[in-house]
Amino acid sequence: MLNAYYLYKLSHQLYKWHIPIVPKLIKLLCFLLYNSSIPYQCEIKEGTRFGYGGIGVVLHKRVSIGRHCTIGTNVTIGGKSNHYEVPKIGDNVYIATGAKVLGPITIGNNVTIGANAVVINDIPDNAIVAGIPAKIIKYQSEEPSI
Questions:
Q1: pLDDT tens across 45-91, in order?
Q2: Where does the sequence pass through the membrane (predicted)?
């Protein structure tokens, strides 16, 4: 099925093969279809999904996103003024609709980021964060509930 992630994977593979213009055209197509900016230079690992095809998602070109993440609509993951580094997202991270992840930060594994949260600090593994600026509101237990 055609969606922003599929277009990203295609353009990223062509970029790795050093094919010059086609990745840029695919990125433009993704922008026109989904109103999203998902650069072919960023690193998005397998199993990651975009809600509703990736509508409104904006990623910085140096962003690294782990395996099996879910990214909602209108999510921004990018840099901050006067900082070269950009966010690094771990595995199994859920980023809800409208969230912003900004600056030279690291998001751990198994993290849930609430809707419209603004994350500007590092988040440890197994945390649930929400708010502006985002604060840890709970830790997910690793034990199965009965």
A1: 999 999 988 899 999 999 999 999 999 999 999 998 888 999 999 99
A2: none
Number of structural domains the chain divides into: 1
CA 57 to chain centre: 8
Q: Is residue 55 part of a domain?
A: yes
Q: What is the CATH number of the domain that holds 94?
A: 2.160.10.10
Q: Assess if residue 28 is contained within a domain.
A: no
CB neighbour class for 74 (10 Å; exposed up to 12, middle 13-18, buried from 19): buried
Q: Which residues contact 19 (CB under 8 A, 6 or more apart)?
A: none
CB-based contacts of 74, cutoff 8 Å, min separation 6: 55, 56, 57, 97, 98
Nearest CA-CA partner of 23 in 45, 42, 40? 40
25 within domain boundaries? no
Full residue range of the structural domain in which residue 83 is found: 42-139
Residue 37 maps to a domain: no
